[in-house]
Amino acid sequence: MVSCNCSTENFNNKDWDNIISEEDRYLFLDIVDDLQTIPNYEIMRLLGTITQTTHLELHAFSDACMYSYGTAIYLRCVNGNDITCNLIFAKVRVSSKNMTLPRLELMGALVAYRSLIFINKSLNLVVNKVYVWSDSTCVLHWLHTRKLLPVFVKNRVNEIRSGELDITFKYIRTHLNPADLCRGQIGSTLVNNKLWWHGPSFLCHGENDWPVDNIDFGNVKLEAEIPTEENSEIDLLAKTRSRNKPAPRPNDVDETEFSSFHQLINHTCIVRCSGNIRIPISKGDYTVARVDWIKYLQGKYFQDTKISLENGKKDSLSLNLGLELDGNGLIICKGRFVDLKIDSDNPFPILLPRKDHLTQIIVMDIHVKNCHLGTNQTLAALRNNYWLPSGRTEVKSILRLCKICQKFNCKPYETPEFSAYPNYRLNKNVSFTHSAVDYFGPLHVNDGGKATLTRSVWCLLFTCLTTRAVHFELVNSESSSDLLLAFRRFIARTGGCKSLLSDNAAQFHLLQRTFQHVYDDNTAHDILNENKIEFKFTPALSPWAGGCFERLISITKQCLRKMLGNLSLSMCQLNTLLTEIQHAINNRPLGYYGEEDFIITPNHFLGIKRDNFLPDVSSSNVPRNQGNVSTLVREWKKGNQYLEAFWSKWFAQYVQSLRERQDVRCKSGKGNQRVPKVGDVVLVRKPKCKNREMWPYGKIEKLYFGRDSKVRHVDVRLQNGFAVSRPVSWLYPFECCD
């Protein structure tokens, strides 16, 4: 594995299509042969005997070359005079182009630091000491200095010095550095290399036997004792981190328990008054508490900057923002506004850190005070008193946590893409074998010939999901009894159906239960049990799921509006008109293939009944030399061919045209990309109500998946305890679910 890294430079600047040279080919074959020996390697799993008194240390060695950098980490176990040291982790990375060797050495130290954090979290052990060894004096100097560094170096040095681990940095000579082997080594020699598997031999001895170098980096620890005036500049700047430790919280109040900075200040003042809420709190008390909390916040993140300002020196942050200390000891941002003259107690903004709870509640208080305005207005108000680096990005991320703004700005779950067409849309079936039904209306008819005496009636639209034919049944009301009668007429006129799709109207659910009761009755006729109807329902409040009948209802309403106008018809006249509209709709072309082509329509399939099906006749079944019998059979066969020709036209003109439909999902705008999960807290859209303040909150309890295994609707438990079913596009998730 390592031998590959030592040879990568031979293949630089080569594309995949380039033919490598013969020399490179043999080099590659050598690498392959070496890799084949890897399965024979045996790695010791026992790292050492660990007891409660064992002293544990992690030693990370880093190194780099022009084409790679890496680290090797060892666990040192000390049990009295028994000391063991074994390899526990190693990592190698290919270096970027056009990077200097010192920076690559720094990248190696960064990989070592990140690996130590990973190992420390993974081991269920208490590690007493952590060391990082490097053979680069330049990197050690960068890690110990507080002078202004280039941005690339500064960012990586700051990460290493972040203080997550108490690390001691030491210098090691190259020939003793096991990380030097990360740059490239043949596997067959690596397996027997004690330096690689156990580290430098001095780690198996006491610290007094460790090598001492004249370079003064090895004995300097980042968090060392308080520096004195006689220390060198490097030692002074390296050890100042512990000089000004973060101040304790004012009055031991935990700021994370408060969601408002004003409440935090008020509580701090009450605590200072020994909890006596009857003592009036003055404006000066609020000011002192506010200053103390901001001092605590700045000391937590900017202690090095504050020390530099106190010593009359400026680090890179001070130079960029023009930082100074005000009379209260707070870091303020003057910049180039030295001659600014405004009537304010705080003409210069106070520096705040990013990614802290105190900063978050300060910004949130300003946001609420400014009536929940957006990022620009909140940032402008914030900068009157505070300066936040990368302010726009930080304020924007904080405002996303505002629950009130979330309620008005959150987006619904994105509607999944349409699933594949069901089989009854693509395969031939007798008309109305698979049907859908829905109401439309009310329609107004007059009684007794007087236009003023009108009553409302409704129409049931049945549509075939295969041939797209329609059938109308006029009913006096939306009652279940009228629905049952209309459905019986539909079955008698069309020959019945195997499945019926509808929305979630109560009448359709009652119809399903009625038929189910009949099917379950032991005295029911056998023919009923043989022709059971499967009832299917679209998700609640999902009209797009019933587009197959909603579209035809729209066409029917257009015909009625254009033909009726303001006329009022009798029941008989309206029934006649609907029958004529039914014929016109069923005579519409299912596809278009030119004026001369035969156009297929739903009417062509209405004469085909399920009980009219006779067996197909093949050529082998045609009798020979039997006079009229053979002639009739040939005619029978010819009729079957005509019928098959209709279905072929239907497939070519209608089914194939379904590919032209480019929409992949409902046009509901861009939604939230998150996938709904059980337990998500959501805002539930209320029908016919656009005011989000009136929408209830809910919690997802159950998910329903479509044929494509995507969540399309869910059961939600509302605040009032009721459970409802809603499509995902009616649910608006909160970020608190993340």
From TrEMBL:
Provide the GO biological process annotations. Answer: DNA integration
Q: Read off the InterPro entries from this record.
A: DUF5641 (IPR040676), Integrase_cat-core (IPR001584), Integrase_H2C2 (IPR041588), Retrotrans_Pao (IPR008042), RNaseH-like_sf (IPR012337), RNaseH_sf (IPR036397)
The terms under GO molecular function for this entry are: nucleic acid binding
Integrase catalytic domain segment(s)? 418-610
> Cross-referenced Gene3D superfamilies, in alphabetical order?
1.10.340.70, Ribonuclease H-like superfamily/Ribonuclease H
The record's PANTHER family line, in alphabetical order, gives: PHD-TYPE DOMAIN-CONTAINING PROTEIN (PTHR47331)
Q: What is this protein called?
A: Integrase catalytic domain-containing protein
Tell me the organism's taxonomic lineage.
Answer: Eukaryota, Metazoa, Ecdysozoa, Arthropoda, Hexapoda
